[in-house]
Design goal:
Distance between the termini: 20 Å
Strand content: 35-45%
Number of helices: 2
Order of helices and strands: EEEEEEEEEEEEEEEEEEEEEHEEHE
């Protein structure tokens, strides 16, 4: 229990740099804390009603739906500087409800699900430079939550099919669409229809989409993993009777990043560099001498072979990836052997 608060805490989101969690405290107050639950604090002293916040890609700002601190009758979006608490209001527009905010990877656009006061929910892309919001789904009665692909070239979303009467097929299917609203494509239609579905989340490499769905049975609490290219079901995990909130995305989050290159500065990527990475990433007592092919050693009481894991007759940094996977259970963003000086991100 991180917040341990008597008031409502909703919409948690880990910052892209893995250092903080932002959430909505006491219905209308954006707060942040360290990822271990420490140093909890309000982000701003501005008097306004804020919605659930989302991080900018550089982890320096939060975007929320809000009313204007200078004129509480005007609604729109606020950018909050996390370091100073300053609030910049802009992009005034009236919605009955806004959720699923998602900042584009290049920080130029904002994706959100907006419900008009007159009824009907659609996905919108707000250009943060021009202040123009474009309805990219534009279908009656849809309930849609979406997110950007890691490269920002497409949007995956969960919503209704385009039919004359959406009541027969509520909030069930997985789609892909271009940021300008073109090329809408059905990726996956679960076997069991249920209105309790969430928005999707791309894996860091963009190859999979995770979302809460009801594929195994009506109202089942499944976490589905689909191929982002063809939509095929890759895997499905059933979470028993554990509940989830419709509209809440699963979250593949960045947890740490380490230099993955010539750590010892000798001009080569070898097992010594991999051992240093292992030691730095997990604070393990990893030896730093270069191991010969087939050699092994003890690590935290366990016996691990540290040698030519990929059978290329060399002990190099690529073998270190196998050590990270085997010892720590950490998948890496790329299976390729990085060049000297390159970096890789470690994801949870």
């Amino acid at each position: 229990n991180l917040s341990n608060s008597p008031v409502g805490d909703t919409g948690p989101e880990i910052s892209p740099d893995g250092q903080h969690i932002a959430w909505l405290h006491n219905v209308t107050e954006p707060w942040i804390m360290d990822t271990d639950g420490g140093n909890q604090r309000s982000v701003t002293d501005a008097i306004a009603a804020f919605g659930e916040p989302t991080w900018s890609p550089d982890s320096k700002n939060l975007m929320t739906y809000c009313n204007n601190p200078d004129d509480l009758t005007v609604h729109g979006f606020c950018i909050i500087d996390v370091a100073t608490g300053d609030v910049q209001f802009g992009y005034a527009m009236e919605f009955y409800q806004v959720e699923g905010l998602s900042w584009s990877p290049d920080s130029t656009r904002l994706l959100f699900s907006g419900e008009q006061i007159s009824g009907g929910t659609d996905l919108y892309v707000l250009n943060l430079k021009t202040g123009v919001a474009t309805n990219i789904t534009n279908t009656d009665g849809d309930n849609e939550i979406g997110t950007w692909s890691p490269d920002g070239t497409e949007i995956a979303f969960v919503g209704n099919p385009i039919t004359a009467d959406n009541d027969d097929d509520p909030f069930a299917n997985l789609y892909r669409i271009d940021p300008d609203g073109q090329n809408r494509e059905l990726l996956y239609d679960p076997l069991s229809l249920s209105p309790a579905h969430s928005g999707p989340a791309y894996s860091p490499d963009g190859k999979q989409i995770a979302w809460f769905c009801s594929d195994s049975a009506p109202s089942a609490k499944d976490i589905c993993f689909n191929d982002s290219d063809g939509g095929d079901l890759i895997d499905e995990h059933t979470d028993g009777d554990a509940g989830f909130v419709a509209g809440t995305n699963p979250d593949w989050n960045f947890t740490s990043g380490y230099l993955f290159g010539d750590t010892e500065c000798d001009g080569d990527l070898d097992a010594t560099d991999a051992a240093l990475l292992l030691q730095n990433a997990a604070e393990l007592e990893a030896p730093v001498e270069c191991f010969e092919i087939g050699q092994s050693h003890f690590l935290n009481g366990d016996h691990w072979f540290y040698g030519d894991f990929n059978c290329d007759n060399e002990v190099d940094a690529l073998d270190g990836l196998f050590v990270l996977r085997g010892v720590l259970g950490m998948p890496m963003t790329s299976p390729d052997c990085p060049v000297v000086g390159s970096s890789a991100d470690v994801f949870n």
